[in-house]
Predict the 3D structure of the following.
Amino acid sequence: MRARAFTAVAAAALVLAAGCSSGDDDGSGGPAAESSTAPAGSGGAADRGEPPPAKGSAKVVGTVAENLETPWGLAELPGGDLLVSSRDTGTVYHVAAEGGKVTEAGQVPGVQREPGNEGGLLGLALGADEMLYAYLTSDSDNRIVRMTYDSDGPEGNRLGAPDTVFRGIPKGGRHNGGRIAFGPDKMLYVGTGEAGDPALAQDKDSLGGKILRMTPDGEPARGNPEAGSVVYSYGHRNVQGLAWDDDKRLWAAEFGDQKWDELNLIEPGKNYGWPEVEGKENREGFVDPVVQWPTPDASPSGIAFADGSIWMASLRGERLWRIPLDGTKAAADPQAFFDGKYGRLRTVQRASDGDLLLMTNETDLRGTPEKGDDRILRLEVS
């Protein structure tokens, strides 16, 4: 097991003394993880059959790729090959399904990266038209671009010129959001951060601290809470993970500040509280998280849904969390895997064959890279 820079207790004490969080929202300590657990016979999944068991399993069955530099986003191509974004270099890499050979697909122009901040080339998503969508930090904002991908093109020159689909998302040294995903409705969902200005999260005229829903062309999607607006939910601090369950419900993970990281069930038009509320406060007008974690245990990033559970990658927590679901509630307390074994975990994604792909994040300034880092691991889970 790799060494950590701080123990949870020491880190908690340090941040409480400082009165602020640092680096990937690495906030202070707090009580143990808490979930909203569904009572027996309360509906949801229980009405259709038994929820998943309280305890599951996660086993690493192979290494897909190694020696990746600051990987962030992940997209699977037809046939199983992968595209990976490098946050700090602005490069997209191709990973072969057979053998795991890593080659450069191309550079994405216009990416601005400043040492120590959280911007750069972030989330990736593959559209139904097989166009590659990317969330990036430019010199003026965070934006979404799309480009063609030519699998037969020469190494380093497989990406077409990017077309800007959506612009104007606030940028900052931290809280840039960055996760993008196409939903079951074929609309593009975007997790944003409040760019270090908490007031933006409650401002529905701002794109910061939101989940956005738009067409593949960047237009407000039909059925959004407010016609003509891409804002789908608000009151978020820094959304890092998006996933849908088997009933097409949207779940999101986001960084807390000094108390609680959150897993939220997203409903259109709802207010998730930041900065007025952090974690569960049961206050009128705000939606409480389904599960919350003390910030040293999580600092969540990507999430995926598989086998009746949400699986959540954690950065500072250096573990993979399993949250079994019973409809809209947690069926049991969260269960942790790989505590500290692989270091910081950035992205978890369900592959087309049903396995999970887990991507580490040790090669940025906050990690402690070892030989082979960063890597993509293949997991069998239940």
